[in-house]
Batch of 3 targets.
Target 1
Amino acid sequence: MKLWPEARLSILIYHRVLARADPLFPAEVDGAVFERQVRLLKRFFNVIPLGEAAQKLGSASLPRRAACITFDDGYADNEKVALPILQRHGLSACFFIATGYLNGGQMWNDSVIECVRHAPGAELDLAACGLGRFPVGDAGLKYKTICQILGKLKYMQFERREALVAQMRALLHSPARQELMMTGEQVCTLHRAGMEIGAHTVHHPILATMSDRAARADIGNGKQELESLIGAPVRLFAYPNGKPGQDYGRRHAEMVKDLGFDAAVATHWGAAHYGSDLFQLPRFTPWDRGRLRFLLRLQRNLLKPAP
């Protein structure tokens, strides 16, 4: 087996690129880490736009060690921090935007994070929300509490989850962080800079928990809103949460295809190859900070063909 198989496509997922390290999430990528990873990608891989990669997969003409960079959700630091780094290195990325959170919105998971981050005292009492009590005496305990609460809420029915998070925010007097998500103008800045803009629904629901009608509407409306914003077609899609068979199903892939997308990405690990389903392309998150571990993670993922 070759060390770097040639006809494979590695697609990396990022969410945030912080301006500075967050003590509550020490493993989160910041600008310095992202720049080191970008340098390694540029040196060892052929980084190409995702739309081009999908076309080359379909025509069996991928370059050697092809790779793509993608971002999910639409965080403002993608434009403020990640974009200048990408531009310095002459690389492209695809930014998948959940349009319902542009211009001052906040996703439910970030609301939970901020509630726990600023919780006073040693215990967070969410019994009134039906969630129980949690220790929050230090950053480590707060991190564990955040993971526990997110796990409890993630697969709830969308409206119920939104109501619970709103109740939590009201109980703890936790306002939304207005600067957390992109503005419409920041999305346009990315587009004008030559970055790809992809759809990620409007409200970032787990599609498998919705009716087919509601799922199709959220997918299609997100596409239309982005096309209206940037004045160009949006041909790429990312499934929210993205685990095949759990967060979305084959019927959702058919919806995406019917709505006029050219390709879609999921979150199962592996590298795409000729014959891979263009509407269920695998992606992975490169957690490792060290240079050698980062490259080994890329190699390990590259050697794992997509199902």
Target 2
Amino acid sequence: MQKQRVAVVTGGAMGIGGESVAQLAITGHHVVIADRDTAAATQTAEQLAQEGLSVSTVEIDVGKAESVAAAFERIQQDFGRCDVLVNSAGLAKVYPFLEYPLDHFEHTMNVNVTGTLLCSQHAARMMVREKWGRIINIASVAGMRAVGTGRTAYGTSKGAVIALTRQMAVELAEHGITANAVSPGPVDTPFTRVLHTEKFKKEYSSAIPMNRYGTVSEIAAVVAFLASDQASYITGISMPVDGGFLASGARGI
């Protein structure tokens, strides 16, 4: 009898990460909510446990190598495996290009790119033993196309995550591990409610054929599919989930 698969979701306390936790748990995984906000992670875990879902938490700061190592050591001790990794933790702030602070650029790259690298390395080492694994990186359409102004670090970091995903896919395929990126368009989350002004929301929505922001459940559904056995021949892609934003040019007649 196959053991229950273990999925780890960084930034899993809320937003896209939180909904990915829920959908992976619904599909039968034990899900580890890996987040530096331990109070929010615990609250999410308790809510899902009340629904009869299998979840736990581990503290992690993906911007610190020692924290990543400690979190995955804990996962190794508690479960002895990591079958699915969703790299959802990330950050962004908006500054004009000419004044973009170097310290924030470096911090964003460290969290969004280096954090993804380190978590993936630790998880993949456990996956290799099982000759099966799924790594899903939450990227962004901002990594495929410039989205507005002020996103020098965010867009660059997400472009790097997409490139990193391709490299992982090529090197890990022989071990039965797939690596894919999901690139959301604008999504209604606590993150975007702070980052996006009302003016920006209106302009962004008007550039999307579906004329709206996405929902966390629409993104998490793609995450859950890429984590499944049905996605066994998909690797190295960046899948836009964006209401047609990347496909669209001038609109109207």
Target 3
Amino acid sequence: MPATVVVGTQWGDEGKGKLTDLLAAEMDMVVRYQGGHNAGHRIVVDGEAFALQLVPSGVLYPHLTPVIGNGVVVDPAVLLKEIDTLASKGVDTSRLVVSGNAHLIMPYHQELDRVIERFLGKNALGTTKRGIGPAYADKATRIGLRVQDLLDPAIFREKLDVVLREKNSVLSKVYNRLPLKMNDILDLYLGELAPRIAPMIGDTVTIVHDALSRGERILLEGAQATFLDLDHGTYPFVTSSNPVAGGACVGAGLGPRDLSRIVGIAKAYITRVGAGPFPTELDGELAELLVDRGHEYGTNTGRRRRVGWFDAVMLRQAARLNSLTDIAITKLDVLDTLPSIKVCVAYEANGVRYDYPPYHQSTLHEVTPVYEELPGWQTDISSCTSFDQLPKNAQDYIHFLATTTGVAISVVGVGPGREQFVTPS
């Protein structure tokens, strides 16, 4: 049975964790296919919140196999801490499998991430400083250490010796930082972390394909979102991997014909963390209202998110970049108190109208949003259990989003809880 992909269509934080958790109820396996612990997925089950960073969201279901694919960069200390936290809440993580081909985040990656951001000053990219970018850079230059290297101490030591000499040279001579000690890293990674990680390491490509051949249902879960994609996002204010649906094939070891459904996630408004263009960004009292009602602070970092009106221009682009089959809209309830709501349906710049984002970054920084304004519903919708129970204006808003983006909307979130969603008729 072909696989389903869940992909963010905006700048992240759309609620991928909740949707993955929702869809996982009918799945046999959930595979995380890219990113690292720079993205957090928050899931609320029976009033208890779970903040996941590396472990796939489906871990909360006892019947399901959670897999960390080859496209992920893994900080083993963070992974083990997350596993211990889940265990303390009664969650069984014994089924977790980690790809041996996934790359390791090392202490020098984190140190470089911090000093490079400081060095960039006003041109800083707003990274989480957790070593994600430097780890992917080492992967691309073929000097990275992989999860499987933890199983071979001699290979691990040999690779580390080569790369650490280069990293320490950069840290000391360019950034005036103290060199990292090889023995400290060996003690941590081989002495403390490897014994616990080793039982989880596996050939995830074979595991995933064997599951497909048995007719099992597989869900592919990404981190970040389309407009943080390294190739298709608002470069350079992007992540260091490919969250788009095509990245799911690479990061999990699947072919395009293995995918059958690609669900895009979008908030009923839009948010962004860090620097970069944001055509529909709001400020003042309205922005603070959305931040407060939507609890718009990073799951991992606690950073305040920038907020703005829904951007249909972006979503049209996301639809064609990902071949979306349908869309899930989250956090509709955050708009409950507004008397009217705007939707950006196009951009204008220098007398030219754009129905899709302009390819040139200079133009994107100059665009003016073209808005359609719709009436609000000013009613609490958090207790609605069917689409028909939504106020007419809320239904009309959802129908308008589907029409202006050209993609069917299959799920609408009306609150943070696992069961707080409705299905449009």
